[in-house]
Design a protein that fits this description.
The chain is mainly alpha-helical. The chain folds into two domains: 5-45, Arc Repressor Mutant, subunit A, CATH 1.10.10.60; 58-208, Tetracycline Repressor, domain 2 (Orthogonal Bundle), CATH 1.10.357. Helices cover 65% and strands 0% of the residues. It contains ten helices and no strands. Helix 1 crosses helix 3 and helix 8 (159-168) crosses helix 9. It is flat, with a radius of gyration of 20 Å. One of its GO terms (biological process) is negative regulation of DNA-templated transcription. One of its GO terms (molecular function) is DNA-binding transcription factor activity. Keywords: DNA-binding, Repressor, Transcription, Transcription regulation.
Length: 210
C-alpha cells in the first residue's frame, strides 16, 4: 500500500515527540511506516526536506489566527501576540525549535505565511519601509525560533553543571537566584520580545511608533 506525505510527516512528528530530533532518521521513519527508505524519497528527498514539512504542519494552525490588527496603532501588541503564538506552537513539540531552525520557506509554507504577515503589518501598520519590514520579520522569526531552541536544549542541566556556572559567573548566579520559579522562561521570552518591539518602534516613523 502506498504512503502519502501527510502520513509520513505526522508519523515523523510522533517519533519526534517520543524520541527527540537526534534519534529521528529517514531509516527509522521508514521502518515505522513499514516501507523501505527509498519509498520516502518521493515525498521527502532529504532529512532537511522532512524537517521543513514538519515545520509546516507545526505552524499551520497559527495562520488563520494572524489577521492584521484592526487598529494600525495596535501593531506592537499584535506582534507580541504573534511571537507568543509561534513560540507556543514550537514548544508544543519536543525539539520543535530545532526542527524549524533553518527551515526553507518553499516547503515550510506556513512559516513563510507568518513571515509574510509580519512584513505586511510592519510595512503597512508600523510604517517601516519594505526592506526594513522584511528585516524586522526575519528578526522576529530568529528570536522566537532561537529562543525556543535554547529553552528546549536546557531542560536537562544537572545540579553539578549549575553549581559550576555559579562558581564561575557570580553576577549571573546572583541574577538567576532572583529569577527562580516556573514562570521564568515565559517572563524571559516576553522580555526579549518587548526589547525587539521597542527596537522596531525606534525605527518606525514617529506617527506610527505608538
Amino acid at each position: 500500500m502506498g504512503i502519502e506525505r501527510d502520513q509520513v510527516v505526522r508519523t515523523a512528528l510522533r517519533l519526534l515527540d517520543e524520541n527527540g530530533l537526534e534519534k529521528l532518521s529517514l531509516r527509522r521513519l521508514a521502518g515505522e511506516l513499514g516501507v523501505q527508505a527509498p519509498a520516502l524519497y518521493w515525498h521527502v528527498p532529504s532529512k532537511r526536506a522532512l524537517l521543513d514539512h514538519m515545520t509546516d504542519v507545526i505552524v499551520a494552525p497559527l495562520v488563520p489566527e494572524l489577521a492584521g490588527p484592526s487598529d494600525p496603532a495596535a501593531w506592537p501588541d499584535w506582534l507580541r501576540r504573534t511571537a507568543g503564538l509561534l513560540h507556543e506552537a514550537l514548544l508544543a513539540h519536543r525539539d520543535g525549535g530545532a526542527v524549524a531552525l533553518g527551515a526553507g520557506l518553499h516547503r515550510a509554507v506556513a512559516l513563510g505565511a507568518v513571515a509574510e504577515r509580519i512584513v505586511e503589518v510592519l510595512h503597512e501598520a508600523a510604517g517601516l519601509d519594505l526592506a526594513d519590514a522584511s528585516r524586522g520579520a526575519g528578526t522576529v522569526l530568529q528570536l522566537v525560533i532561537g529562543r525556543t531552541v535554547e529553552e528546549q536544549a536546557l531542560t536537562d542541566v544537572t545540579p553539578e553543571a549549575l553549581a559550576e556556572v555559579r562558581s564561575r559567573f557570580p553576577s549571573m548566579a546572583a541574577a538567576l537566584a532572583l529569577r527562580q520559579g516556573p514562570d521564568d522562561d515565559a517572563a524571559s521570552f516576553r522580555f526579549a520580545v518587548d526589547l525587539l518591539v521597542e527596537g522596531l518602534r525606534a525605527v518606525a516613523p514617529p506617527d506610527r511608533a505608538d
